[in-house]
Every structure is written in structure tokens, then in C-alpha cells.
Amino acid sequence: MELIDGKKISLQLQSEIAAEVKTIISNGGKQPHLAAVLVGNDGGSETYVAAKIKACENVGFNSTLIRHTNEITEAELLATVHKLNADKDIDGYIVQMPLPKHIDEQKIIEAVDPAKDVDGFHPVNVGKMVLSLPSYISATPNGIVELIKRYKIETAGKHCVVIGRSNIVGSPMSILMAKNNAFANCTVTICHSKTKDIASFTKQADIVICALGKPEFLTADMIKQGAVVIDVGTTRVASTETKSGFKLKGDVNFDAVAPKCSFITPVPGGVGPMTIASLLKNTLLAAKKEIYK
Ligand code: GUN
Predict the structure, then answer these.
(1) Which CATH code is given to the segment(s) 139-272?
(2) Ligand 1 contacts CB of residue 119 (under 6 A)
(3) Mean pLDDT of 4-9
(4) Which of 197, 202, 210, 234 has the smallest set of CB atoms within 10 Å of its CB?
(5) Is the distance from the beta carbon of residue 96 to the nearest atom of ligand 1 less than 6 Å?
(6) Do 182 and 153 contact (CB within 8 A), yes or no?
(7) What predicted TM-score, i.e. pTM, was given to this entire model?
């Protein structure tokens, strides 16, 4: 069993990005600039956005955090989005999800200029990704593909089972794994809340990608010997063992599943850090105008 060290690969990626930023600046270019919009004070969102801002510092990006309270109206949030679209100094930005219930998330996503949509959530970017045209690919699926590349995991002709069909992870992941390229070419099955007997599918899988948000859902009896297991789950559960009072739990019962695997990602330290590295990569692409000229 080999542990997939997302933290290590994320730091490698960040140092590659930092080197590119140095070159851009020494050639007289502008410092890449990422903005993040955070609405309310959800603990998870606070942590993720703080990590994204810190990562910007690590690679030499400029960053701007825009905070709004939960009481912000949809019109006010749209005004922030329009301002960021027009701001020439901002190369890319994200609006951290989830948003309060009174705000239509899809309306906000569609208001973001696709050229600045470094989350890859806008329908234009999703559509281009589906068609294999240059686009921003959303951070978590892109980070998983990067792990597959860097660990030289064999994918061609393999059966990949994706559990979960969210717009952010499961759906794009299933599309990326089926693509005709060196890091994919899988036969893909998507399992979801209405799938009957998920174990009957995961038992046949060479690669299982768990993105359903149910702690320790995948158990050892659900996979075959030598499977590759990618755990996207990050559910916060109360814990007396940590200072923060909570612990991140993956969708995989790691201790039981790991001995059966050829490769497995831990939680934390697997997919999570890659999400941030992918966001930085997309921001660099935005600054270099590589996707939208
Ligand atoms: N909420 C959970 N994951 C993400 C993400 O990748 N981007 C944004 N904007 N919000 C999220």
C-alpha cells in the first residue's frame, strides 16, 4: 500500500508556481492577484478561505479577502461580483460556497466573468471542460487528476467508480476520468443516493473516488484487493482530541480499507491540500491569460 501524500505534492506544485511568479515579476510582469468573497462566518468556509489566502502569500500572489455578513442581499452580493469582474487588477476570484439560503448560488456563479472564474464553476467553463476545450477545471477534480499523474497511477481501461454526483466534485470527476487522455481513459460508473447496492459496484472497481460526504462510508468489504481509493470527504465531527474541538473525517474507513489498497489518500493531507494548489494554478493561468486571451 502506498499513501498518496497530497500535502507533499501540493507543496511541490506551490514551489513550481512560486518559481513562475518570480520569473513573471523579474520580467516586469504584474503580481498575480486572487480575490475571495466570504459570506457569513461558517467555520468550514472560514478555514478554507484562510488557507487559500495563506497559500497566495506562499507563492507570491497578491490576495484580497472581501467579507460580507449573512444578512447581505443577493443584489448586494451581485454588485460585489460585478465590481470584481470590472477590477483590472484582479486576475481571478472565488465566492466561497455555501451561501446563505436566501441567495441563489447559481445566479452568483453565472454572474462571475468566465475569464476570472478560477473555481471553474461557471457553465461556460464546465461546458468547455466537457468538450475538452481549454478552461478552468474546478479545483478538487483537477487536484485529484494531478495526484493520479504524479503517482503514475494506471488508469487506461480501468474501472473507476465515483460515489457522489455534486456539481463541484462527483460530476466533473466522472467526466475527467472518462476522457481520452493519458491520465484517464477509464470506464466510469457514477453511484449516488438512489443507487441500489453501491457495494456491488465498488467491489468491481480498480479506482474508487468517494465524494458523498458521509464519514467512513467506504468499508474494507466494499473494495477489491489492490484498489486505488481517493477520499474526498471532509466532514467536521466533534472531537476532544483537538484544540479546535473538531476533527476532519473522510468518507473512507481508512484503517480498515488502507491495507487492501495499492494507493490511498488520507484525510487530512490527501485531496484537501491539492484543492488549494489547483486554485493557485488556475489563478496563474488567469494572470497569464492562457485560457481567455
Ligand atoms: N466550497 C467547497 N468547496 C469549494 C470550492 O472549491 N470553491 C468554493 N468557492 N466554494 C467551495
Answers:
(1) 3.40.50.720
(2) yes
(3) 98
(4) 197
(5) yes
(6) no
(7) 0.96
